[in-house]
Amino acid sequence: MKLAFVKYHQPCPLCGSSDAASLNEDGSAYCFSCDKRVSDYENLIDFKTELSSINDNVSEFKIHQTNSVNEIEGSFTELTDRGISLATAKKYNVKAVRNTKGEIVKHFYPYCVATEVTSYKVREPAKHFTWRGNSQGTGLFGQSIFKDSGKYITLAEGECDAMAAYELLGSKWPVVSIKSGAAGAARDIKNSIEFLEGYENIIINFDNDKVGRDAAKQVAMLLTPGKAKILTLPDDFKDPNEMLKAGRAQAYVDSWWSAKLYTPSGVLNISEQKDNFNNRELLDSVPYPWAGLNDKLYGLRRGELVTLTGGTGLGKSSVTREIEHWLITHTKDNVGIIALEEDWRRTVDGILSIEANARLYIDQVRENYSEEQLSQLFSKVYEGENKDRVWIHSHFGITDIDEIFSKLRFLIVGCGCKWVVIDHLHMLVSSMVEGDERRAIDNIMTRLRSIVEETGVGLILVSHLRRVEGNRGHENGVTVSLSHLRGSQSIAQLSDCVIALERDQQSDDPQEANTTHMRVLKSRYTGDVGMATHLVYDKDTGRLRETFITNDEEVLL
């Protein structure tokens, strides 16, 4: 088959169309308006003498293309169905077909490899799209008609949106579009990345819906940081074409100049955060049961992970029960408890013991209370105003880590718990059979941190200490440091606050042997660390009483 390359589009001397006639390099011509073909155009019109008078109607197609692609029906015309002018249609080399009623029923969008048109994307009613020719390797729509460098270029989601944006911008700035819709945006951009990167600013104006917004972010991430800006249309307009048809050119221009520099999630432009800074909510805070701890920490806050640590037998369970009881009786928030080393009934008894000032978890003590007294205590703590507020994980020997995390999430989301106590970390670690302890702790702490950040829960976590070297251990009152945390640095790194318990169980002084010292090892909120307070254990009541120690005396508070 002999190829005939298109040279010009110009008036047809047979039907009078202003630009439907295609003059080919071999001297032949075809009119897309009247469907007439001639082998020798110059026999019909003296092209040389007429050229000067029809110059304005000549569209120089800088293309090289076979007849099968170029011989498309239609003509250059105002795209009345989309509100796009004839000048813009000619700029983008877009033709259209009208029916007998004069209604536009087809658009033809040319796509090029370099400057060569290799295919047309055909738009028919109801947004039905087909292709003519081979679209493989083609660039963006409109890419061939603009320079490959400049200050600004706009990237639209569709061909009509590109032409509409071009008009809205006063035909001053280059506008191109992807060819495959939002779903193929990333692929299209990768194929034309070199062209786009020639511009200093790339304004991304995809459809104002979730699919379009997500695609805009995907595209922005492919471009050199600092180049991509995402345009947000005003007044819920979906795309530039809607704004063009609504006559909102100035509103579009204002939005275009206000397009915001794309920043990845988690990176903020602080100049844009004034309202969020000034209108932030105060962190929900609940005082600790002990004044000395409050002086250093300013209370417990939701959205923080507090780690309580200490050696074996130094009172971690007693402290957590005091905190649990305090949260139940001094807030109206739901409280969740995951105690992995004891039956749920013992947990219930432990909190009731705080209320009763008696060790009800010991059978011999419990026997001194009537059933009615126990029932009244239970109702006071767990019923009435506190009904449906306290939720306890009954594990029945279940230690599967994923199941425990699932129940933790349920306590927070399903039961509405604002505070959760987990006793203790290393029971979670023991449930992970793969990997070493350090890796397991890293994994668990990361998951706990993520839950805190996601839900805003206040999480109190009990953790053990590693054995210290030397003759003195934690049972001998050795001073605790962050390095003593067992298993991994992630415990300290991912906790907002770390509180250590110290006690010399072997002291010859009975008072000292029963006094737990609370030391703050980390406080992200206040930065205030060091010895906070002292708690004396009362064997008769099972309670921890705060004491103020001077060089001369000890005073219970």
Explained architecture:
With 557 residues, this protein is an alpha/beta fold. The chain has 2 domains: 72-261, 3-Layer(aba) Sandwich (Dna Topoisomerase Vi A Subunit, Chain: A, domain 2); 301-556, Rossmann fold (3-Layer(aba) Sandwich). The protein is 31% helix and 24% strand. It is built from 20 helices and 26 strands. β8 (116-124) and β9 (128-133) form a beta hairpin. The protein is elongated, with a radius of gyration of 38 Å.
Fill in the keyword field for this structure.
557 residues; alpha/beta; Dna Topoisomerase Vi A Subunit, Chain: A, domain 2; Rossmann fold; 2 domains; ten-stranded mixed beta sheet; five-stranded antiparallel beta sheet; 20 helices; 24% strand; disordered N terminus
Question: Which term fits the overall shape?
Answer: elongated
CATH fold assignment of the largest domain:
Rossmann fold
The CA-CA distance between the termini, in Å, is 104 Å
User: Would you count the extended β strands for me?
Assistant: 26
Assigned CATH superfamily of the largest domain: P-loop containing nucleotide triphosphate hydrolases
Proportion of residues in extended strands:
15-25%
Q: Count up the domains.
A: 2
Q: How many DSSP helices?
A: 20
Can you give the mean pLDDT?
A: 83
Q: What is the annotated CATH architecture of the largest domain? A: 3-Layer(aba) Sandwich
- Major β-sheet, in short? 10 strands, mixed
Strand order of the largest sheet: 19-18-20-21-17-22-23-24-25-26
Rounded radius of gyration (Å): 38 Å
Q: Can you identify the CATH class of the largest domain? A: Alpha Beta
Q: Regions with pLDDT < 50 over 5+ consecutive residues?
A: 1-8, 45-68
